[in-house]
Amino acid sequence: MERPSGPSSAPSSGPSSRPAPGPAAPLLIACALGIERFALRPGRAGAAGPVTVLRTGMGPKNAERSVARALGETRNRDAAVIAAGFCAGLVPGMNPGDLIVADETRDPDGSTPCLGTGLLVDALARAVPGHTVHTGPLTGSDHVVRGQERAELRATGAVAVDMESAATLRSALSAGSRPVAAVRVVVDAPEHELVRIGTVRGGISAFRVLRAVLPAFHEWHRSLLLPRR
Predict the structure, then answer these.
(1) Cβ–Cβ < 8 Å for 116, 61
(2) Which residues contact 214 (CB under 8 A, 6 or more apart)?
(3) How far is residue 118's CA from residue 145's CA, in Å, rounded to a whole number?
(4) pLDDT mean over 185-196
(5) Rounded CA gap, 68 and 51, in Å?
(6) Beta strands, E only, the chain
(7) Strands, DSSP E only, in 32-89?
(8) Residues near 106 by beta carbon (within 8 Å), at least 6 away in sequence
(9) Above 50 in pLDDT, residue 177?
(10) Distance CA 99, CA 129 (A)
(11) Which SS3 state, helix, strand or coil, does residue 199 take?
């Protein structure tokens, strides 16, 4: 990213000689569930440009269709895209409320590299202090993953699984070059599966963390030089 130039002794034709900066590129945050959208609702200070929180509905097909439709709108054409919401952790020792920052998303259709992973990790550490942030591949599934299947996905190197992130980012890039990322909050993990007692407590913890991450998304967005078409 270029830094603003300093004072110059060259003659100037006045204030109008420097072109005005273009409008700030928008940010699209895609999540599947209404409760996730509620946690991520916009309107807080710090955004670099217009922010849309899109509820896609559950599953990869819904995510793919919803994101493609949203990015087809003029106001979102150049939007950076973050896939966000809850996920299942795959690594033993994870707890509800831990954060996942994907360095790539995977599904049977391939993998998508994420941009600004380290920046997001640092920003989340400031936004949600005291919560563990894990990085690594985030894999996709078309159903809720439990038991042995969770272990099998872990054996591929993935750190977490959800149903929408991979489809969201693939759809976003199909609509044009743009920064993409995926950030998820662990709601269940190998020792804390959804079917066990304590699920409600874990869900509340995950919701509180998700509600606090928006400033980190804004920081990521501000720090990226969005492509110009």
Answers:
(1) no
(2) 40, 42, 44, 46, 127
(3) 28
(4) 70
(5) 17
(6) 27-31, 51-55, 80-89, 99-107, 110-113, 133-140, 160-162, 180-188
(7) 51-55, 80-89
(8) 112, 137, 138, 139, 140, 156, 158, 166
(9) yes
(10) 11
(11) helix
